[in-house]
C-alpha cells in the first residue's frame, strides 16, 4: 500500500512507467493479450504453417525423386538410342557387304560365262580355220594332180592316173 | 499529471514522457484494472496485426507462398530454429510459448514506432510480467524436470572445489537478477528510444536547428527500428537460454 501511494505521487513528476496505479490495468490486459495470441498461434497459425512447410518439404522431395527418375529414364532412352544406332550401322554394313558379295558373284559368273563363250568361239574359229586349211590343202593337192595330168597330156606322155596321184601326194605332203 | 513543468525554458516545451501515459480510452480519470485504456487499444492492435499476418496471411496454404505467407513462414522458421538451436530438440514443445512472446514483443515494439502510438513494451509493468512469467516457468520447470538436480546449475563442477561455494553464491545472485535485467533491458530500450525521439522532435520548434533536428529524428528512428527487432530477438533468445538451463542444468 505504501509503495502504491508513493508511486502515485511520483507519477506527478516522474516516469509514467513508475505510476503503480496503472499496473493492474496493464497487467490485466497483457495477460488477456498473451492468452489470445497464444490461442491464435497454437490453435490456428502454427499448425497451419507447420503443415504447409511439411507439405512443401514433401513436394520438394517428391519432385527431386521424380526428376531423378526422369533423368534415369533419359539415360536409358539415350542408351537405347545408341544401341539402335549401332545396330542399324551394323545392319547397314552387313547389307552392304551382302550386296557387294552378291554382285561380285554375279560379276564372277558373268565373267566366267563370257570366258567360256570366248573359249568356245575361239575353239570354233580354230576348228573352222583348220577345216579351211585342210580344204585348201586338199584343193591344192587336187589342183596339183589336175595340173600334173594336164602337163603330162600336153607333153604327150601317157601317165597312169594312179601313179600320178601317188607322185603328187608324195610331193605335196611335206 | 505531465512532466512538462520541468522542461519549460526558452519557449521550448518538451513532453518526452507524455507518450507513455496510460489513459482511459473513453473518458474518465480513474484507471481500474478493467478500464479500457490505450494499453488495451494497442495490445488489441498488436493481436489483430499478428492474426492478420499469421492467420490471414497463411490462409492460402500455398506450396509456393505469396509475400505475406513468406513473412509468416519466416517468423515461424526464425523462432523455431532459435528454439531448436539454443534449447535443443526437447525444447521444441515449448515453441508455441516462445513464439507468443516473440511476436508479441516484436509487434508491440514496431507498432510503438508509429507516430502518436503507445508502446506497450516500454512499460516496466508489461516487461516485468513477461520476465517474471519466464523466470517462474523456467524455475518450476527446472525443479519438475530435474528435481534437486536443478540445483547443480549453481554448483560449477568444472571449477576447483575451493572456488565452488563462492561461485555458487555468484550464480544464485545472477540467477535471481535474470528477471530484473530481462525486463528492464526491454522496457529501458523502448522507453529511452522513444523519449529521445520526442526530445529531438521538440527541437524542431526552433527554426534554426530544425533541419538538424529532423535529420536526427530520422537517424534515431532508423536506430529504433533496429533496436525494436533486436530487443525482441534478445528477449526471446534469453528465454531460450533460460529454458535450456532448466532442461539441462548441468554445465
Automatic annotation (TrEMBL), chain A:
InterPro entries for this protein: ATP_synth_b/b'su_bac/chlpt, ATP_synthase_B_chain
GO molecular function annotation: proton-transporting ATP synthase activity, rotational mechanism; proton-transporting ATPase activity, rotational mechanism
Membrane topology (UniProt): Single-pass membrane protein
Localization in the cell: Cell membrane; Endomembrane system
Coiled coil: 60-91
The keyword Membrane belongs to this UniProt entry's keyword annotation: yes
Keywords, alphabetical: ATP synthesis, Cell membrane, CF(0), Coiled coil, Hydrogen ion transport, Ion transport, Membrane, Transmembrane, Transmembrane helix, Transport
Alphabetical list of CDD domains matching this protein: ATP-synt_Fo_b
Gene Ontology CC: endomembrane system; plasma membrane; proton-transporting ATP synthase complex
Keyword Membrane: yes
Predominant location category: membrane
UniProt superkingdom: Bacteria
Transmembrane stretches, start-end: 27-46
Subunit structure of this chain's protein: F-type ATPases have 2 components, F(1) - the catalytic core - and F(0) - the membrane proton channel. F(1) has five subunits: alpha(3), beta(3), gamma(1), delta(1), epsilon(1). F(0) has three main subunits: a(1), b(2) and c(10-14). The alpha and beta chains form an alternating ring which encloses part of the gamma chain. F(1) is attached to F(0) by a central stalk formed by the gamma and epsilon chains, while a peripheral stalk is formed by the delta and b chains.
Family membership noted in the UniProt record: Belongs to the ATPase B chain family.
Free-text function comment from the UniProt entry: Component of the F(0) channel, it forms part of the peripheral stalk, linking F(1) to F(0). The b'-subunit is a diverged and duplicated form of b found in plants and photosynthetic bacteria. F(1)F(0) ATP synthase produces ATP from ADP in the presence of a proton or sodium gradient. F-type ATPases consist of two structural domains, F(1) containing the extramembraneous catalytic core and F(0) containing the membrane proton channel, linked together by a central stalk and a peripheral stalk. During catalysis, ATP synthesis in the catalytic domain of F(1) is coupled via a rotary mechanism of the central stalk subunits to proton translocation.
PANTHER family reported in the protein's UniProt record: ATP SYNTHASE SUBUNIT B, ATP SYNTHASE SUBUNIT B', CHLOROPLASTIC
The protein's name in its UniProt record: ATP synthase subunit b
Source species: Kangsaoukella pontilimi
Gene: atpF
Amino acid at each position: 500500500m505504501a509503495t502504491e501511494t508513493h508511486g502515485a505521487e511520483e507519477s506527478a513528476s516522474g516516469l509514467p512507467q513508475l505510476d503503480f496505479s496503472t499496473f493492474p490495468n496493464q497487467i490485466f490486459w497483457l495477460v488477456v493479450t498473451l492468452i489470445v495470441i497464444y490461442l491464435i498461434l497454437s490453435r490456428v497459425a502454427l499448425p497451419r504453417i507447420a503443415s504447409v512447410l511439411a507439405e512443401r518439404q514433401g513436394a520438394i522431395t517428391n519432385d527431386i525423386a521424380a526428376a531423378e527418375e526422369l533423368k534415369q529414364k533419359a539415360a536409358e532412352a539415350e542408351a537405347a538410342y545408341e544401341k539402335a544406332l549401332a545396330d542399324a550401322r551394323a545392319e547397314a554394313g552387313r547389307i552392304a557387304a551382302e550386296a557387294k558379295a552378291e554382285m561380285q558373284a554375279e560379276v564372277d559368273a558373268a565373267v566366267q560365262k563370257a570366258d567360256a563363250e570366248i573359249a568356245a568361239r575361239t575353239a570354233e574359229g580354230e576348228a573352222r580355220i583348220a577345216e579351211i586349211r585342210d580344204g585348201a590343202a586338199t584343193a591344192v593337192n587336187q589342183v596339183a594332180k589336175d595340173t600334173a595330168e594336164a602337163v603330162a597330156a600336153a607333153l604327150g606322155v601317157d601317165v597312169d592316173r594312179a601313179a600320178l596321184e601317188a607322185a603328187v601326194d608324195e610331193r605335196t605332203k611335206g | 499529471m505531465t512532466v512538462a513543468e520541468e522542461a519549460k525554458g526558452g519557449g521550448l516545451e518538451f513532453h518526452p514522457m507524455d507518450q507513455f501515459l496510460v489513459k482511459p480510452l473513453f473518458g474518465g480519470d480513474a484507471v481500474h484494472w478493467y478500464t479500457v485504456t490505450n494499453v488495451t487499444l494497442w495490445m488489441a492492435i498488436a493481436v489483430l496485426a499478428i492474426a492478420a499476418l499469421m492467420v490471414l496471411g497463411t490462409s492460402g496454404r500455398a506450396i509456393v507462398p505469396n509475400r505475406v505467407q513468406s513473412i509468416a513462414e519466416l517468423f515461424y522458421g526464425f523462432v523455431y530454429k532459435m528454439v531448436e538451436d539454443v534449447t535443443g530438440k526437447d525444447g521444441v514443445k515449448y515453441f508455441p510459448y516462445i513464439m507468443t512472446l516473440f511476436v508479441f514483443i516484436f509487434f508491440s515494439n514496431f507498432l510503438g514506432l508509429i507516430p502518436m502510438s503507445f508502446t506497450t513494451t516500454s512499460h516496466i509493468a508489461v516487461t516485468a510480467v513477461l520476465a517474471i512469467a519466464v523466470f517462474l516457468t523456467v524455475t518450476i520447470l527446472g525443479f519438475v524436470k530435474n528435481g534437486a538436480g536443478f540445483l547443480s546449475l549453481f554448483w560449477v563442477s568444472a571449477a576447483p572445489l575451493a572456488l565452488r561455494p563462492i561461485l555458487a553464491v555468484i550464480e544464485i545472485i545472477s540467477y535471481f537478477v535474470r528477471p530484473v535485467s530481462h525486463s528492464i533491458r526491454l522496457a529501458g530500450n523502448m522507453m529511452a528510444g522513444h523519449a529521445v525521439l520526442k526530445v529531438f522532435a521538440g527541437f524542431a520548434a526552433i527554426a534554426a536547428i530544425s533541419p538538424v533536428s529532423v535529420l536526427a529524428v530520422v537517424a534515431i528512428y532508423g536506430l529504433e527500428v533496429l533496436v525494436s527487432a533486436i530487443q525482441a530477438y534478445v528477449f526471446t533468445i534469453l528465454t531460450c537460454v533460460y529454458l535450456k538451463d532448466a532442461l539441462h542444468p548441468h554445465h
